[in-house]
């Protein structure tokens, strides 16, 4: 790919996903009857100009296995709702206490704390309703998708990772502990998106495992890049407050090993991700680029 | 039934449900790998000595249609996890700010706010995983159950009702607005439990509708009884703070109409619930008693 080509593809995808989410959060029957105030807060939390990396991954993985593109996108939207809810709750005063996300006030700032808690709850609930309603996908596959999401987004995955991260303030952590936390907090949902792309397309168990592993590498790379941005980045470029981990007394791998060593580690994660894609050759080009992209991102 | 018989049945059921939840929240594979701190907070939120009315309703309705008792109970446990998560979030300082529930410190008091938010999130997520894993029930029925739960617990149901309730502080509300809020906030999940009991047992659409309507009446009766307890009850008997609505400037039907008129209304709701059960005669005795019980409860 030419320089900038992947960024352009991802941007076009983000714009399409944003439009679909906008449509969905104004007219879908799963939200019919939602009080306006709540719906506005949910929309504020979701329609935030995000990179939409997770839906992108679901759709690109689904392409490898000739999955139904529309079904893959619906699953992608559900996973993006989960990602969005996690950000809404993460930004709360009791958690990361962030006022700004992507240059806009966070949901509890634009509305209030109670509304932000409830909007997050509603988005999480909606995500399961969306996957249940993907009617081009057999019921048994939908059940597998829901089981996968419940594990990866819940107590043994993303939510568990957030608890581990929260408990880390002011404590020395081992590299193993930090990596486990990162694999859960960020890796689980990204890897869920990749595995879901395989699952929704009826891929074999082997291929599902490959996609899960690809996603795990991408997820950890994403989090390491985040640590580098937090430690060395410029808030105006990153689009959110930096040095937060340090301020909260949280030890990161960036602090332990320094930028250079982390960049080596990122390169190894990208190689690992590429290895999982080898059987698919050229057809997996965009996924290879995605792994590279998350590891060198500037925001 | 003899006086006290229904209470004894409900109590025995609550004890059995509590034991099952305790087992489930220590060894189920859906939570394998959950950090201890998070699991402890989830357990604190769920194992609280509740009445377990929702699992009771799922199981009793399922009996009417010769449903698999174990499958019905699993669905009941999932709905109880949703009920518990809603209490954990409802008790938060940004919401109702309650320190005590059933004589024990609330989750954010026993742990902290961030942990309470995340424990609630994890319980909600778990609920969908539990229903997806009820393997004695056909996949299409499981999908219908998940769709039902997503609507009734989410933005157009329970969460939406909480938002409407929250917005009510200091405002005059019409009877229609209050009733709509109550139907969503409390009625939706109770009615979901009743409809789920029919659904999990393969009942006809007509019977599903009957059970939903029965549940709607029971749900609104439950909430009205709550309003009466809040307005006229004694905190030491009720087991939580009373006069909260009044303190928060929330108008309730108890305030508008007084105790007597509300008791008439409760009687009408119970009659409506009984009417839905007529075709089942003696077999629905416990459900008839349940409707009476919620309308005259003391705590």
Automatic annotation (TrEMBL), chains A, B:
Domain of life from the UniProt record: Bacteria
SUPFAM superfamilies for the chain: Terpenoid synthases
Swiss-Prot/TrEMBL keywords: Isoprene biosynthesis, Magnesium, Metal-binding, Transferase
GO biological process, one term: terpenoid biosynthetic process
Pfam families: polyprenyl_synt
Gene Ontology molecular-function annotations: metal ion binding; prenyltransferase activity
Cofactor(s) the record lists: Mg(2+)
Gene Ontology CC annotations of this record: cytoplasm
Family of the protein in this entry: Belongs to the FPP/GGPP synthase family.
Protein name: Probable farnesyl diphosphate synthase
UniProt source species: Jiella endophytica
Phylogenetic placement of the source organism: Bacteria, Pseudomonadati, Pseudomonadota, Alphaproteobacteria, Hyphomicrobiales
């Amino acid at each position: 790919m030419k320089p900038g080509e992947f960024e352009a593809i991802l941007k076009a995808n983000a714009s399409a996903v944003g439009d679909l989410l906008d449509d969905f959060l104004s007219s879908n029957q799963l939200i019919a009857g939602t009080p306006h105030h709540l719906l506005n807060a949910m929309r504020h939390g979701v329609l935030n100009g995000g990179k939409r990396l997770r839906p992108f991954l679901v759709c690109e993985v689904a392409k490898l296995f000739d999955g139904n593109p529309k079904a893959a996108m619906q699953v992608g939207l559900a996973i993006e709702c989960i990602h969005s809810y996690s950000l809404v709750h993460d930004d709360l005063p009791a958690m990361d206490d962030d006022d700004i996300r992507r240059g806009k006030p966070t949901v509890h700032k634009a509305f209030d704390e109670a509304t932000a808690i409830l909007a997050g709850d509603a988005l999480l609930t909606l995500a399961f309703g969306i996957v249940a309603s993907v009617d081009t996908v057999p019921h048994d596959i939908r059940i597998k998708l829901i089981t996968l999401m419940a594990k990866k987004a819940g107590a043994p995955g993303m939510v568990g990772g957030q608890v581990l991260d929260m408990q880390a303030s002011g404590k020395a952590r081992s590299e193993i502990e930090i990596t486990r936390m990162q694999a859960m907090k960020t890796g689980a949902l990204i890897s869920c998106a990749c595995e879901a792309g395989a699952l929704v397309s009826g891929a074999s168990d082997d291929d599902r495992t490959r996609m899960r592993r690809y996603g795990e590498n991408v997820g950890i790379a994403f989090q390491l890049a985040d640590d580098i941005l937090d430690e060395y980045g410029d808030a105006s470029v990153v689009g959110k407050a930096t040095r937060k981990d340090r301020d909260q007394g949280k030890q990161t791998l960036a602090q332990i090993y320094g930028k250079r060593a982390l960049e080596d580690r990122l390169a190894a994660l990208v190689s690992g991700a590429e290895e999982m894609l080898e059987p698919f050759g050229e057809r997996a080009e965009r996924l290879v680029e995605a792994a590279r992209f998350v590891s060198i991102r500037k925001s």
